[in-house]
Design a protein that fits this description.
424 residues, Rieske Iron-sulfur Protein, 29% helix, Naphthalene 1,2-dioxygenase Alpha Subunit, Chain A, domain 1, 2 domains, globular, 7-stranded antiparallel beta sheet, 20 strands, alpha+beta, 11 helices
């Protein structure tokens, strides 16, 4: 197979009669596919940049690398949020070199140009050497990102000015974002700093993994054994749930599981005081939403995927994760813990314990997943002889289980519609 001609054959092969769905492994290794993905996906889709809690007060800012672009997200003195390319209009140096903070203005290190949190040029050394109307057209201000919008505190950018609205793009996924955010009356907030790490594997493998309920019992057997052997760490709830194709490449699995959830699912390890605390949490949910929705918020887990690279895992804790390909076989991953602002010190303690124990880079899950993904990437060296990956589990079933593979098929179908339909 000639990898220089990836469009000569389909990347996805579907056989409804045989109920099989296969993905060409060249899609994980081919530099041309990698280039096409940036051009047709990362340059065209809405991408998560940050959470409202990070820029809560006027003057707050964060800097992020989004799809290979350095960006500056700010809240100005008028409480308006902006996203700019982190490059001085003068000679291109970054105007902000800090990860996060609070500032009324940003001064370029190179020549000293100063910009407000609204991006406007405020001053420049040697101003008398420029004409009075030098910035009349605003061309010396920081350059804003073409599109910026938010939903329920999650801020997104897009580099395509003509993209559909964020609300339309999120579509059915908004229901599941609502379920996460409605855990709090005061609002959700990121807790602690950013976790960053690299994986030597193609970014689409992490997409598959993030909404894959099939691998958990096998890949994370050590964690399950740990819970079983830790007195009181599990409830009698069995693993069960469903997977959903949400459209636009988004997908989710929603399921019950035996671990404790600080939002309201108690386990004996947390004692009688913990039970009373979570009973109070549940009663507030019940008062606000009624029993059906309160039960769903409190007792159901969900792994939500927003195309192309945002994952919100609301399980024993909540993690927000995004990732960007840096090469066909490498990605940069960013993760944050999310929690209700008003939760008690007791609940916060166990939430962060759960987060670090399972979801963090040093927890039970992430090292297992990284090893699995990197093993897949190594296995793709055999793609000439073994060219296809199978993602057929659950095809043809009326009720799709959380451990079936409908979610990955939703991603790949949308991925192919973007990459191959518009590739030149």
């Amino acid at each position: 197979m000639n990898l220089a001609e990836p469009k000569a054959a389909p990347a996805v092969r579907i056989d409804p009669a045989k109920q099989t769905f296969k993905v060409a492994r060249r899609s994980f290794v081919d530099p041309q596919v990698f280039a096409d993905e940036y051009r047709t996906i990362f340059d065209k889709c809405w991408l998560y940049i940050g959470h409202a809690s990070e820029i809560e007060k006027p003057g707050a800012f964060v800097t992020r690398t989004i799809a290979r672009r350095g960006l500056l997200l700010t809240r100005d003195a008028k409480n308006e949020v902006h996203a700019f390319f982190n490059a001085c209009p003068h000679r291109g140096a970054q105007v902000c070199r800090e990860r996060a903070g609070n500032a009324k203005s940003f001064q370029c290190f190179y020549h000293g140009w100063v910009f407000g949190a609204d991006g406007a040029l405020k001053s420049q050394p040697g101003k008398e050497c420029y004409p009075d109307d030098f910035n009349a057209d605003g061309s010396a201000n920081l350059v804003p990102v073409p599109r910026l919008d938010q939903y329920r505190g999650f801020w997104f950018v897009c580099f395509d000015r003509g993209v559909q609205s964020l609300g339309d793009y999120l579509g059915n996924a908004k229901e599941w974002i609502d379920i996460v955010v409605d855990q709090s009356e005061a609002g959700m907030a990121l807790v602690g700093g950013t976790q960053e790490y690299q994986i030597r594997a193609n970014w689409k493998l992490l997409t598959e993994n993030s909404i894959d309920g099939y691998h958990a019992i096998n890949t994370h057997a050590t964690y399950v054994d740990y819970l079983k052997n830790s007195n009181g760490s599990m409830s009698p709830v069995p693993f069960e749930g469903e997977g959903y194709d949400l459209g636009n490449g988004h997908a989710v699995i929603e399921y019950r599981a035996p671990w404790g959830r600080p939002v309201a699912q108690w386990i004996p390890l947390w004692g009688e005081d913990g039970k009373q605390e979570l009973d109070r949490v549940y009663q507030r949910l019940h008062t606000r939403f009624g029993k059906e929705r309160a039960d769903r918020i409190a007792f159901s887990n969900r792994n939500l995927f927003i195309f192309p690279n945002l994952v919100i895992n609301d399980i024993m804790a909540i993690t927000v994760r995004t990732y960007f390909p840096t090469a066909p076989d490498a990605m940069q991953v960013y993760g944050w813990a999310l929690a209700p602002q008003e939760e008690s010190a007791w609940a916060r303690k166990y939430r962060l314990s759960n987060f670090l124990e399972f979801l963090g880079p040093g927890g039970f899950a992430t090292p297992d997943d990284v090893e699995a993904l990197e093993q897949c990437q190594r296995g793709f060296a055999n793609l000439l002889e073994a060219p296809w990956s199978d993602i057929s589990k659950g095809m043809g079933r009326e009720r799709v289980g959380y451990d079936d593979e409908l979610q990955m098929r939703a991603f790949w179908t949308h991925w192919q519609s973007r990459v191959q339909a518009t590739a030149s």
